[in-house]
Amino acid sequence: MASEDARYRATSQFEAWSFSPAQLAAMREKTNAIARQRIAERMLSSASNPPTSNNTSHANTPDPSGTGTPNPNENSAPTLPDFLKPEEEALLVSFYVSELLRAADHLGVPDEVRATATVFFRRFFLTNSIMTYPPQEMILVALFVGSKAEGRFPRIIEFQQKFNTKQDILAGEFLLCQGNRFNFEVRHPFRALMGAMMELRSYGDIDEQRIIAAEKRAHEILLFSPLMTDAYFHYTPSQIMFAALSLADRGLAERLIQETFHFVPPTTNNDNTPAVTPLPGTENSGISRKEGGGKGTMTNDERAAIIGPGIRDKVMGTIEACRNMLSNELPERKSHWTSESIFKSQIRPVRKKLTKCRDPERWNLSELQRQRREAGLRRADSEERPAASNGAKDAGIFGGDLAAGAPEKKRRKVDGSGLEDPFGGPL
Amino acid sequence: MARPLDPLGFEDEMCPVCKSRKYLNPDIVFVFNPECYHSMCLNCANRLFNDGPNQCPHAGCNKTLRRKGFRSAFFGDLAVEREVDIRRRVAAVFNQVEEDFETLQDYNNYLQMVEDLTFELVNGTDERRRQAEAQLQAWEAEHRQDIERNKKAGREADEMSRKRLAAERDAARQRRIEAIKEAEEEKRERVRSREMELDNLAKGITTTTEPATKVQLKRRGQVNRVAEAAPNPAASAMATGASEVERLSIRGLKEKPKAPAPQGPYDPFGGMDFAPSRYKLHGGLTHPLIEKYRLDRQHVAGGYSFDDFAARALYEAFAGLGVFVEDEKEAGSASGIGLSQETTMAAGIAAVDDADRMDLD
After folding, report:
1. Which of A38, B50, B237, B330 is deepest in the core (most CB within 10 A)?
2. DSSP string, B288-355
3. How far apart are CA A130 and CA A84, in angstroms?
4. CB atoms B317 and A193 under 8 Å
5. Where is this region: Disordered (chain A) (predicted)?
6. A82 to chain B, closest Cα gap in Å
7. Beta-carbon contacts of residue A231 (< 8 Å; ≥ 6 apart)
């Protein structure tokens, strides 16, 4: 196994956030089903006993939800709204990602922040339904947390000035981190593209203008296409980079692949002998056997498994698949997502549907946070146990979202379902 | 080397063979053979066993004895003599020391075992004695090397302590000689200075008395200094002797508690290999975007390494190129990495949701 691949396999991006298409679809189905069930329960419970504290949440909620919820309130046998289907959710997520990219442009953040925020957003809405938490606010939360994750620490004032909201961003911060299972490192293909360009330049026989043009175009693609698609879930950054490069200049991408997987195993009768072949001088300097620690010796089989023709074809197939995925969302499609007609014909109906079926308790982030804090304080006051007050203090410190209310209860619950991780279970 | 066995009631001592007594023959010497611990007088032993091995003359004892095995007793009671012999033999075989054991508990268990065995040998019935004897011999045969090594270590330790004692004695003697010499020297000096004083007085020069005493004082100071310096070599010799003893005992310590096999140096990366296998790093890898920083003092002065950037960029370009998410995650779902994780995650969400709901209720 190539050492670079082994290192990539150790990242949280591969461990926790890489899925096959079938798995991704299954997860979205599941998220959707769970959200339907929860929201239906909440709607019914808020309909059956309206004058409880639950009601305050949508009393203070901005109006759109009001159009959906009064219906169950009035009828004694409340009718449930028409929930979004998983495909519709995916469409909305894509739409909001395009909104996120617009917001990022508006904010003028670097490429990494933009991409990280998008990935955070996508990951969050992979395990949480767009019906449960408000995507419009989560966009800004993702941008805020993404900036922090990339080592830039914007002041919330900047966001307030540009987007005219502050409380919701702060309220959603911890929620987003939880939804991302605190996996803050996202691997991006941008630096990889620079690396590929360095390698291409070192060949020495490629026209400089061609390289510059290819890099420009590939960079443009990387800033849009992988973010608008599920590429980050299905492919590794280097595969995405090669796919983008291939879209920009297929010849260069293929050249780079051919040069990398250059190893030709000797004739078949030689293959069976596990002889350690002395490598051709130019090739072996950078290659080292895993255990040998730089001895520079490797059997033909091992070398073929890393840089042989078999793996080359497989890599090319994967890059081709990624290329197809990216080609669905080329940067030219930017206008597609912003065009008024498309919005009217495709997005608006789904958004209307969404306003009817959103979660009555979770829709307002700051209200949700306030309630949870209060619940935590109430518990602390009523029980007056040092542990409980500690919990409330912690909740205050950590911004008190999901875990803020009842640390004891939650822990018990989590233990009951066989999960010992306070972050809400492994991914 | 005969010792008075029974200084008060030696009329009790009687050779069971020739019936002669100490009373009748004050020079009589009693000997016994450790084969059976039956005593007889030296004359009888000589007479009976001069012509080679013979049976023990005691009634009912059919051990075959040799002349060579006879010796005189150290203790009056031959039972004690026998027990001491046995203990000596057992101690020669079971000669581990406390440092050989990992815990005190182990050592105490070992001592207990040895004592039990010894007791069997000394006081046990025939059957048990035979058994203990067999155990002892088996142990001796199995652990011959250990025993030899311990014996050697013990001998060396004895040797060392003997040497150290000798060195101390030598040093003490040396010190005494030095002291005597010094006293003599001082006496001579005093006599000489007094003579000088008298000479000076006789010559009528009175002013020289002060320098003379000064000289004497100075000499005394020198002598003292010499006296201080003198025992030093002996002391240092003693110190080295002590340190050698110390070192030996430390070696004995280190040898025995079986240290776990060396695991090699600690690897914080858990054996992960950082040598690239798909690409090679060479000079001249560069990019127009970083080119301009090569001359930028803010970057260069801080030690920014452009090679490191190139290494990282190349690593990112090729890392995970051979990772096929679809294949690996589908394969992983069987072993509980993929879909099953997703279900636990869903359960986690459900759990969190439930908890929240309970809070709000």
Report:
1. A38
2. HHHHGGGG-HHHHHTT--HHHHHHHHHHHHHTTTT--HHHHHHHHHHTTSSHHHHHHHHHHHHHHHHH
3. 9
4. yes
5. 37-81, 264-301, 372-427
6. 22
7. A225, A240, A243, A322, A325, A326
Instruction: Give pLDDT tens digits for A197-243.
Output: 999 999 889 999 999 999 999 999 999 999 999 999 999 999 999 99
Task: Give the list of residues 6+ apart from residue B144 with CB closer than 8 angstroms, or none.
Answer: none
Interface contact flag, A426 B351, Cβ < 8 Å = no
Chain CA centroid to CA A120, Å: 4
Residue B317 CA to residue A237 CA, distance in Å, equals 8
Sequence letter at residue A150: E
Residues in chain A with CB shorter than 8 Å from the CB of B358 are 406, 409, 413
Q: What is the pLDDT of residue B74?
A: 87
Q: Is B14 helix (H, G, I), strand (E, B) or coil?
A: strand
Compute mean pLDDT per 10 residues along chain B, 361 residues long, and list them.
Answer: 51 79 85 87 88 86 87 87 91 83 86 90 88 88 84 90 94 95 95 92 67 52 50 46 37 50 80 84 85 86 88 91 88 47 44 40 32
- For A302, which residue in chain B has the nearest alpha carbon? B277
Nearest CA among A194, A336, A305, A135 for reference residue B306 = A194
Residues in chain A closer than 8 A to B286 (CB atoms): 198, 201
Which residues, in sequence order, are CB contacts of A196 under 8 Å at separation 6+? Answer: A241, A242, A245, A256, B317
Interface residue of B278, B281, B282 to substitute, partner A, most A CBs within 10 Å: B278
Backbone angles phi, psi at B32, to 5 degrees: -145, 165
Dig out the tokens for A231 from the structure: 């590429």
Whether CATH 3.30.40.10 fits B1-76:
yes
Q: What is the pTM of this model?
A: 0.57
Q: Residue A140: what are its φ and ψ, rounded to 5°? A: -70, -40
For chain A, the structural domain boundaries read 12-186+339-361, 190-333, 364-427
Tell me the nearest-neighbour CA distance from B258 into chain A, angstroms: 29
CB-based contact (8 Å) between B255 and chain A? Answer: no
Cα(A256)–Cα(A262) distance, integer angstroms: 10
Task: Write the DSSP symbol of residue B71.
Answer: E
Instruction: Give the pLDDT score at B225.
Output: 52
Note the pLDDT tens digit of each residue in B38-65. 888 888 888 888 888 888 888 888 888 8
Superfamily of domain A12-186+339-361: Cyclin-like (1.10.472.10)
Question: CA-CA distance, B158 to B143, in Å (whole number)?
Answer: 22
Q: Which residues 18-47 on chain A approach chain B with CB closer than 8 angstroms? A: 18-23, 26-27, 30-31, 34, 38, 42
Strands (E) across chain B are located at 30-32, 39-41, 54-55, 64-65, 71-72
Instruction: Summarize the confidence of residues A414-418 as an average pLDDT.
Output: 40
